[in-house]
Design a protein that fits this description.
By secondary structure, the chain is mostly helical. It is built from 19 helices and 2 strands. It has helices at about 5-30, 45-60, 85-95, 100-125, 130-140, 140-150, 155-170, 175-185, 195-200, 205-225, 225-240, 250-255, 260-280, 285-300, 310-320, 325, 330-340, 345-350, 360-385; strands at about 355, 360.
Length: about 400
């Protein structure tokens, strides 16, 4: 199939913007202006360094949290990642000087991204929605914050990319299960996808993914080295504390508006029950299910920072190429809005609800609404579309 000049123009613009994300993150910092203080940390890389810090500390008599060692690797946050992930990834990066490791991680992410883009080009070359999909893939603005921080959330997004790709191309369920396990080891958000797999009777995927995850987790639970991980996970689910200025969730917004925690929790679990009912009654298409369950995480989990929204990238990319609901004009508008930076840069420029680069609580409220309203509308659009169809019975 011959591609037009417009296609290559869109590809070039998207790739150029993505390259500029890296150039700004590592050299010019031009795009820092688009994020409020507190999300752009005072010290670049503290999210990245927590994992090599954890392994370095463990190798020198300390804990996988990065604490208790006589020597330190680099300044960073306390490590909260899965102990197996920490040992595998952390061991590799702590072999290098800190700044070299940080730049190496950026290079690895960039080339993996290019590899995924090439895969999309090769597999979906004739798909009429490919240009729009590639644009979403490259310009999703919260990626900049993820790149700047050197976050590992990228590996979760990548794992989901290959889970969806493998499903759509009918690859081995064992392969899908391995990718699913990797996603869980990065961040256990994928536990929300359990109903999605179960309703579709993807037992091999579930057994492979969850089996591997449990197999590598249990030793750390029994020997005590992974206690920090399980305690933190329990706390984030049961005792949410996130709020201004860095957390972008409906949960944080409702608690900020003084809604009792019990009511917020009831709304969270009611939402999950509703999604389970929809799965059973209406059997949504694959990408619709991924969107609905993943959005429930973005709305209700405790520590959801703006870069966490990058997990939507593979859902949008494959959705717009394979499922009609994503191809509707209103859906495309909502996805584009989700890709854009928040209006903070205008608030910053005009000093509206900001003090310098710091956002006020009212300003934070506006930014959160900007992020969650498109997701709520897109979710409503999908559920309304399902309601118009006859329920599927199996």
């Amino acid at each position: 199939m011959h591609r037009s000049f417009t296609f290559f123009l869109i590809l070039g613009v998207g790739l150029s913007i993505h390259i500029f994300f890296y150039l700004s993150a590592y050299v010019t910092h031009s795009l820092d202006y688009f994020f409020p203080g507190g999300t752009i940390h005072a010290y670049q890389g503290i999210d990245f360094f927590q994992v090599p810090n954890g392994m370095h500390a463990f190798l020198h008599g300390g804990a996988l949290t990065g604490e208790g060692a006589l020597t330190s690797y680099a300044y960073g946050n306390t490590n909260v990642y899965h102990p197996f992930f920490t040992q595998v990834v952390g061991y590799f990066f702590q072999l290098f000087p800190p700044q070299t490791a940080f730049l190496l991680w950026g290079a690895i992410k960039f080339f993996i991204t290019i590899g995924m883009a090439i895969l999309l080009l090769l597999k979906y070359w004739t798909n009429k929605s490919l240009p729009f999909a590639l644009l979403l893939f490259f310009i999703f603005f919260p990626q900049y914050l993820e790149i700047w921080n050197g976050q590992y959330h990228f590996l979760l997004t990548t794992s989901l990319f290959f889970v969806i790709y493998a499903f759509l191309n009918k690859q081995s369920p064992f392969i899908i299960g391995i990718w699913y396990c990797i996603s869980l080891l990065v961040k256990p958000i994928g536990l929300l996808w359990l109903p999605l797999f179960a309703i579709r009777r993807q037992w091999i995927v579930l057994l492979t993914g969850m089996g591997l995850f449990v197999a590598v987790s249990l030793p750390y639970l029994f020997n005590g080295h992974g206690a920090y991980y399980f305690v933190n996970l329990f706390e984030r689910v049961n005792n949410p504390i996130g709020g201004p200025p860095g957390i972008f969730t409906l949960d944080a917004l409702l608690r900020f508006w003084q809604m009792p925690t019990e009511m917020v929790s009831a709304l969270r679990y009611t939402t999950l029950a509703l999604l389970a009912f929809i799965e059973i009654k209406f059997r949504p298409k694959l990408l619709v299910s991924f969107f609905l369950w993943t959005t429930s995480y973005l709305l209700f989990y405790d520590f959801v920072f703006e870069y966490h929204y990058t997990i939507l990238i593979p859902i949008f990319v494959f959705g717009v190429m394979t499922e009609k609901i994503f191809q509707k004009n209103f859906s495309k508008i909502l996805m584009i809005i989700t890709c854009l930076p928040t209006p903070f840069f205008l608030m910053h420029l005009l000093q509206i609800e900001t003090t310098g680069a710091l956002v006020t609580d009212t300003g934070w409220t506006l930014l959160v609404l900007f992020r969650i309203i498109p997701l709520l509308l897109l979710g409503y659009l999908m559920i309304a579309d399902l309601m118009q169809k006859k329920p599927t019975h199996q």
